[in-house]
Amino acid sequence: MKPGKKTLGILTVIVILAVYTACFGLGKDIKGAGDMRFGIDIRGGVEAVFEPVGLDRNPAPNEIEAARNIIETRLDDKNITDREVTTDNEKGYVIVRFPWKSDEKDFKPEAAIAELGDMANLTFRDENGTVMLEGRDVSTSRPVEYSDQTGMKKYEVELQFTKEGADKFADATGKLVGRRMGIYMDEELISNPVVQDKITGGNAVINGMETYAAAKNLSDKINAGALPYAMETKNFSTISPSLGSNALNIMIFSGVLAFICICIFMIAMYRLPGLVACFGLVLQTSIQLLAISIPQYTLTLPGIAGIILTIGMAVDANIIISERIGEELGSGASLTEAVKRGYKRAFSSVLDGNLTS
């Protein structure tokens, strides 16, 4: 097989794999375009109003702002980036709006809203219920997956205490040797180990998590911190998308049709260079979709416009380069020299177009 055909064959396989992965994903970890999370403007979303409970006064402005920041951190942990979080300082409300997909199986808005409103106050208590440490004494936490002696997977949360927290933990475990220490999230007992010895060094673990997701959820709550006051929402309302129900399908169809027309034009005008350019455009689009779908970032209308803009800029760059290479070939240069000179001559125009667009 000639080197050129071999290279083209490898490129074709790479593009096909990229397109398949971008459309359908690979397993549970690599999600494709079908599992992409769209913004409120495309698929709608939910709105929830969190109200303070258990307070005999209105929350102070700094408490409301602290609650808002913690809720935003929890939304970040869930990769919900296209959201609106506002406050009502008179009533102490925090209003949250975020997108969702009605067909997304692993995302339940009701559960997400309930978790956002959890106070998430981590405490370590003795057998009498006396609080010995709190979540503020923990500097960082992270979920951990490991295998026990039988090969069964186990999950836990590793804690790193602050300097003051490490001293408190050492003192508490020293007093509770041979007795149980209860670890609570709000009023829910999540672990109740027997203290074997005084623990120093500023580290601890919370075990007994059934899944890695449960361990990560607990770790995220600890890292975000506790709300300054308890909050609850009795219901939430659905937000209608600003586009019609069929608008997204029409946009996708139009985009695919336009892409095919561009490829036909490129191949008709520039032959093999045009075909290579089309492969590059398909690969670029696939990588962009994967970069959004794998981490489950939210795709909004401005985001779609940005993707279309980058494709247009790539087409423009390929046309400029192909024209310059054609001019060099017309002047009698060899193919290798024409490609080298063509890229060099086109570079300034391509760079200027990318910087100013």
From TrEMBL:
Residues 230-348 form the Protein export membrane protein SecD/SecF C-terminal domain. It comes from the Bacteria. The chain crosses the membrane at residues 247-268, 300-321. Keywords: Cell membrane, Membrane, Protein transport, Translocation, Transmembrane, Transmembrane helix, Transport. It is found in: Cell membrane. One of its GO terms (cellular component) is plasma membrane. Its main location: membrane. The keyword RNA-binding does not apply. Pfam families: SecD_SecF_C (PF02355), SecDF_P1_head (PF22599). One of its GO terms (biological process) is protein transport. InterPro entries: SecD/SecF_arch_bac, SecD_SecF_C, SecD_SecF_C_bact, SecDF_P1_head. Residues 130-228 form the SecDF P1 head subdomain domain. It is a multi-pass membrane protein. This is Protein translocase subunit SecD. The lineage of its organism: Bacteria, Bacillati, Bacillota, Clostridia, Lachnospirales.
